[in-house]
Amino acid sequence: MRRTSLVRLLVPVLLVLAAAFVLAAPAPKARARKPVTANVAAPRPAIELIESVPIESALGNPRLRSAAEVWVELIRSATKNIDFEEFYLTSEPGEPMEPVLAAIIEAAKRGVRIRLLLDSRMYRTYPQPGDSLGLVPGITVRTIDMGKISGGVQHAKFFLIDGAIAYEGSQNLDWRALNHIHELGVLARDERVTARLQQVFDMDWAAAELQASKADSSGIVAWPAQVPMGSSLPIRVVQSAGDTVDVWPSWSPRAYSPDSMLWDRDAVVQRIDDARSEVVMQSLHYGNSDRGITDTAFDEALRRAAARGVQVKMIISDWQSPGEPMQALDSLAQVPNIEVRLSSVPEWSKGYVSFARVEHCKYMVVDTLVTWVGTANWSPSYFHTTRNVALTLRNRPLATEARAVFRASWAAAEGQPVGHGAVYKTRAHGEKKAAGASGSGN
Questions:
Q1: Is the peptide bond before 129 cis (omega within 30 degrees of 0)?
Q2: How many CA atoms lie within 13 A of 398 on its CB side?
Q3: CA nearest 112: which of 139, 134, 81, 140?
Q4: CA gyration radius, the chain
Q5: Of the candidates 351, 388, 182, the residue with the CA atom closest to the CA atom of residue 265
Q6: What is the mean pLDDT of residues 162-191?
Q7: What confidence tens digit (pLDDT) does each residue in 315-338 have?
């Protein structure tokens, strides 16, 4: 047989044997793959700062979540009850309060008990959508007349969920507060913090019931007795391993509160007196006198701080009225180590928005360590006659975030220095845009 013929005969046999060898050989080990992890969001910290930033503005800290997002998330998480205590409630079709209202109604439909307490005077101005919510099974709406109790209004803005979550801050339940006003609030996921604010709500809810059913001929009602706090402060909340927040609640007015030792005015003054290097603060208003009440405690504390070398920076909105309040700011601005600016938020490109386009935040940061976030403007009546609440937080990361909020507002091109012969422009914020118009604070 020729060699070529032999090769032709052997090739198929060799191919079969090779294939058998390959099939019998152990398979090579596959390269180890990294485990596939689901895209699960990290747990939220127990204490968060929550912000609302006017659209078309450069304000705010982009690291903070928005109230419009957070409110819906919190309401949807409720399983038992939600208690709202608010200055007023208003909405417009297509605006960001609509999803919030829808979430409230959905919560009631799934069996969550909802109580909504509103200021009686503002309720007359904004009866809707409160009246409609009151018709939904599971939702009870009441109003409180703080004028009959302490001479002021119910100005606090907070809500409580399932006895475990509390939210308080400068945002009213107002569509404008979610996209046309600069606001800052605190979210606390802690039963102890929630319990403190629950005492305020329960006290006011009981008073509202008395006003609705047992008012005497003068219209004045008695209010529930004060309840001691029952545990020491601060409340220490764990954020993460090695990171804790010390929390102090406070409120106003002093004479009508769960514990008069936690008066909000004194809480602010104490923090200013503790300052070593810096105090930055922001409020809609600032003054030593309003509505027939004079109190210079803030003014004196700020001057004491400046005298010992503390750098004080203040941002007050351009809603500040000309006259005596500006005289107080002018005087402070002359003090070495104190700087004051009026803030302005540019009008919306699509038109004038009433009672909006303003910085409405009420907060203070001391030494980038302690942050006070409240619902009271820095004028006497807000602390002496009006219901307000606040939380003071001692935690450097949170103070750093709040300091970033302040830095953006301080750097805004629209800010106007106060003092040194400045002439202040009057800004319209009222129902209608009119030259020289000014609105009432909220």
A1: yes
A2: 33
A3: 81
A4: 29
A5: 388
A6: 98
A7: 999 987 666 678 999 999 999 999
